[in-house]
C-alpha cells in the first residue's frame, strides 16, 4: 500500500500539463465559431463519435464517483442502482432523441413554448437555469471532497477548483458548444482512467477478489439487496425518476440535436450513457476495496463520501495523484463547460430575446450568451456551500427534473394535454413532494434526503393533475398543436423514419399499426441493440461479483 506524502513535483507537472493542454485544445477548436447557433449548438454538425464523447463527458462528473464509491463503501455493491437508476431506461434514449432534433429549437424552453405557449416556457426557463446552477454546485462539492482527501490536505481544493473553473470558462466563452463537445471527447478518456485506475493496486492491498470476499459481509456482493437500502420499489422509483427526468433536462437538446445527422444524436445519447454505466462498475468496486482496506486496518471514515479520496491517498504514488486530480477535473470541466453554454442559451433565447430585446442581432445574442453563461455559472459556487452530501444533491437535481418532466413527457404522449394541465402538474408535483418531506422530517429544506415514497406520491399527484385539469379546461389551439406534431414527422428526402413514442392514445387506432416495420424500423432496431447492451452490462457486473467466491 502506498501512502502519498503530499503533492509531489511530478503531480504538479501532470496537473499543469493537463490544464495547459486542454485549454489550448479548446481554444484551438474555437477558431471555427462564427455565429450564435455555432456557439449554442455547434451548427448541428458534430460527428457521431464526438456526440458519444459529449454525452459521456457531460453526463459524468466528479460527484458520480464520490457518491457511488461512498455508497458502496457504506452499504455494498447493490447501491449501484443509485447511479444505475437510468440503466433500464437507457434504450429509450434512442426513441426520444429525435424529439429534440426535429423540433428545430435551440433550447428545451423553446420546445415547451411550441407545445404549451410562452408562460410555461418562462416557468421552464427558471427551472432550467436553477437546474444547471444546482448541478454545477454539486460538481464543485464532489471535486473538493476528492481533492482535499486525495492530497492529504497538501493542496487547496478551492485553488484547484478555481483553476478548473478558469480553464473551462476560458475555452467555453470563446468556443461555446463546439469547444465543449470536442474537449468532452478528449476528457472522456481521462474519466475512464479515473473510473478504474485505483482497482488494481487496491485489490493487491486486500489480497485480490478472494481477500475482498473474506473481508466483507456476503451481502456486500449482491447485485440486488434490500439491506443496501435499495429495494425493488426504490429501483422502480429511481427508474421512473430517470425516465421522466431525463426528458426535461435543459442540456438534452445539445446531447441529442447537435449531431450532423439524426442517427448521430441517437448513437451519441444512447451509447455515451452506456459507457457511463460501465464506468459505474469501477466506482462501485472501488468502494468495496476501500471498505476492505479500512476493516483490515481497523479505521473508519467520518464521511462515507471520503472513500474515493481515501483510496487515492493510500493507493497512488507521485505523478499518479496528479493524474487522478486531472481526471477529476476532466470529469467536472467536461460537464461544466456544456452546462455553461446551456445556461447562457436558456437565458439568452428564453429571457433576453423573448422579454428584454426581441430584435437583438445575432452578434448581441452571442455576446449575451457568453456573459449570462459566465454570470450564472458562478452561482454554482454558492449552491456548493449550502449542501453537505454529494449523493443527495445529485438525487435532488434529478428529482426536480422529473417533476418538471411530467408535463414535458405528457405533451408528447398525449395530444389533449394543455398549458393549464401542465401548470397544474408542475405546481401539484412540487407541492406534494415538499409537503410530504416536511411532514416526515419537520424541517423546511431546499434539499431533502431522497426517499422513494415522497417522490412516488409527487409523481402520481402531478400526473393526475395533468390529466384532470387538461380534460376540464379548453384544449390547445388545434392549428398550433398540429404544427407541433407535424415537426415530428420525417421530411421527404431527409434521414429518419416515423417516431414511435408520440401520442400513445393514437396506438389504439388501426392506422398506427399499418406498415409498422417499415415506419418504425429505426426505432425498433435501435431499441433492441440498446436493450442488449444493457443486459450485457448487468451480466458483466454480476460476473465481477462472482470473482473470488
Walk me through what this model shows.
- With 549 residues, the protein is an all-alpha fold.
- The chain is 72% helix and 0% strand.
- Mean pLDDT is 84; it is low at 1-5.
How do the strands and helices of this protein lay out in sequence?
Elements: H1 9-29, H2 36-41, H3 48-59, H4 63-75, H5 92-103, H6 108-116, H7 118-150, H8 157-196, H9 199-206, H10 208-215, H11 232-248, H12 252-256, H13 262-297, H14 307-315, H15 320-356, H16 362-384, H17 390-413, H18 419-441, H19 452-472, H20 478-486, H21 516-546
Helix pairs in contact: 1-8, 1-15, 3-8, 3-13, 3-15, 4-7, 4-13, 5-13, 5-21, 6-7, 7-8, 7-14, 7-15, 7-16, 7-17, 8-13, 8-15, 8-16, 9-10, 9-13, 11-17, 11-19, 13-14, 13-21, 15-16, 17-18, 17-19, 18-19
Compact overview of the structure:
The protein is mostly helical and 549 residues long. The chain is built from 21 helices and no strands. Helix 7 packs parallel to helix 14 and helix 7 packs antiparallel against helix 17.
Amino acid at each position: 500500500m502506498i501512502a502519498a506524502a503530499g503533492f509531489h513535483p511530478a503531480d504538479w507537472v501532470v496537473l499543469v500539463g493537463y490544464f495547459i493542454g486542454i485549454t489550448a485544445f479548446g481554444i484551438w477548436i474555437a477558431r471555427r465559431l462564427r455565429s450564435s447557433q455555432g456557439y449554442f449548438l455547434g451548427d448541428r454538425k458534430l460527428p457521431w463519435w464526438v456526440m458519444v464523447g459529449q454525452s459521456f463527458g457531460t453526463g459524468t462528473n466528479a460527484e458520480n464517483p464520490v457518491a457511488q464509491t461512498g455508497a458502496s463503501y457504506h452499504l455494498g455493491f447493490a447501491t449501484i442502482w443509485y447511479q444505475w437508476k437510468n440503466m433500464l431506461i437507457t434504450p429509450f434514449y434512442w426513441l426520444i432523441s429525435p424529439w429534440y432534433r426535429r423540433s428545430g429549437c435551440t433550447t428545451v424552453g423553446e420546445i415547451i413554448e411550441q407545445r404549451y405557449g410562452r408562460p410555461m416556457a418562462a416557468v421552464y426557463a427558471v427551472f432550467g437555469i436553477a437546474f444547471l446552477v444546482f448541478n454545477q454546485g454539486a460538481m464543485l462539492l464532489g471535486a473538493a471532497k476528492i481533492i482535499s482527501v486525495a492530497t492529504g490536505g497538501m493542496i487547496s481544493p478551492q485553488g484547484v477548483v478555481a483553476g478548473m473553473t478558469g480553464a473551462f470558462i476560458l475555452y467555453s466563452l470563446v468556443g461555446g458548444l463546439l469547444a465543449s463537445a470536442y474537449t468532452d471527447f478528449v476528457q472522456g478518456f481521462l474519466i475512464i482512467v479515473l473510473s478504474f485506475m485505483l482497482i488494481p493496486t487496491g485489490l493487491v492491498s486486500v489480497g485480490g477478489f478472494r481477500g475482498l470476499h473474506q473481508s466483507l459481509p456476503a451481502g456486500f456482493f449482491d447485485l440486488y439487496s434490500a439491506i443496501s437500502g435499495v429495494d425493488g420499489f426504490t429501483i422502480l422509483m429511481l427508474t421512473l425518476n430517470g425516465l421522466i427526468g431525463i426528458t426535461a433536462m435543459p442540456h438534452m437538446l445539445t446531447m441529442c440535436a447537435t449531431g450532423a445527422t439524426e442517427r448521430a444524436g441517437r448513437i451519441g445519447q444512447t451509447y455515451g450513457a452506456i459507457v457511463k454505466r460501465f464506468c459505474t462498475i469501477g466506482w462501485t468496486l472501488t468502494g468495496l476495496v476501500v471498505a476492505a482496506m479500512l476493516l483490515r486496518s481497523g479505521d473508519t471514515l467520518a464521511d462515507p463520501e471520503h472513500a474515493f479520496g481515501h483510496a487515492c491517498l493510500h493507493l497512488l504514488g507521485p505523478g499518479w495523484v496528479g493524474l487522478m486530480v486531472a481526471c477529476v477535473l476532466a470529469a467536472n470541466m467536461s460537464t461544466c463547460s456544456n452546462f455553461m453554454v446551456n445556461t447562457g442559451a436558456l437565458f439568452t433565447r428564453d429571457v433576453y430575446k423573448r422579454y428584454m430585446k426581441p430584435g437583438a442581432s445575432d452578434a448581441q445574442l452571442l455576446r449575451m450568451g457568453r456573459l449570462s453563461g459566465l454570470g450564472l455559472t458562478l452561482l454554482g459556487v454558492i449552491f456548493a456551500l449550502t449542501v453537505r452530501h454529494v449523493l443527495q444533491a445529485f438525487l435532488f437535481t434529478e428529482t426536480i427534473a422529473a417533476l418538471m418532466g411530467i408535463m414535458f413527457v405528457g405533451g408528447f404522449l398525449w395530444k389533449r394535454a394543455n398549458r393549464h394541465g401542465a401548470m397544474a402538474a408542475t405546481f401539484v408535483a412540487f407541492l406534494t413532494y415538499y409537503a410530504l418531506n416536511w411532514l416526515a422530517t419537520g424541517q423546511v429544506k431546499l434539499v431533502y434526503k431522497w426517499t422513494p415514497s415522497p417522490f412516488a406520491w409527487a409523481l402520481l399527484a402531478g400526473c393526475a393533475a395533468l390529466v384532470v385539469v387538461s380534460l376540464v379546461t379548453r384544449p390547445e389551439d388545434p392549428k398550433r398543436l398540429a404544427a407541433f406534431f407535424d415537426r415530428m414527422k420525417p421530411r421527404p428526402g431527409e434521414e429518419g423514419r416515423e417516431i414511435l413514442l408520440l401520442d400513445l392514445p393514437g396506438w389504439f387506432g388501426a392506422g398506427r399499426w399499418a406498415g409498422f416495420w417499415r415506419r418504425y424500423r429505426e426505432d425498433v432496431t435501435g431499441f433492441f441493440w440498446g436493450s442488449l447492451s444493457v443486459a450485457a452490462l448487468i451480466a458483466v457486473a454480476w460476473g465481477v461479483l462472482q470473482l473470488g467466491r
